[in-house]
Design a protein that fits this description.
85 residues, 3 helices
Length: 85
């Protein structure tokens, strides 16, 4: 049996943490370079520009994705526990 709260926290940390990294990349100007590389490596040609860093948008992104991660992890754990009975 998995603990839904702990699984939710793990997912929240993973998703929120991933978006903290993205925010740091954008703030340091490396976001566009990484994005361009990923598109190049996948042989995709799109004209998309990563905008300037916005602290409010960054915090919103991190909080929303962490909450989403928690909810998905929590529900996933409940489903897992139910399936394993």
């Amino acid at each position: 049996m998995s603990n839904p709260n702990k699984v939710g926290l793990v997912f929240a940390i993973l998703l929120g943490g991933w978006h903290i990294v993205w925010s740091i990349l954008v703030a340091t100007g490396l976001g566009q370079i990484l994005y361009d590389f990923i598109l190049w490596a996948h042989m995709i040609h799109l004209s998309i520009t990563i905008g300037p860093f916005d602290l409010t948008a960054s915090i919103t992104l991190i909080v929303v994705t962490a909450i989403f991660g928690y909810v998905v992890g929590y529900i996933g754990s409940l489903v897992w526990n139910r399936m394993c009975r």
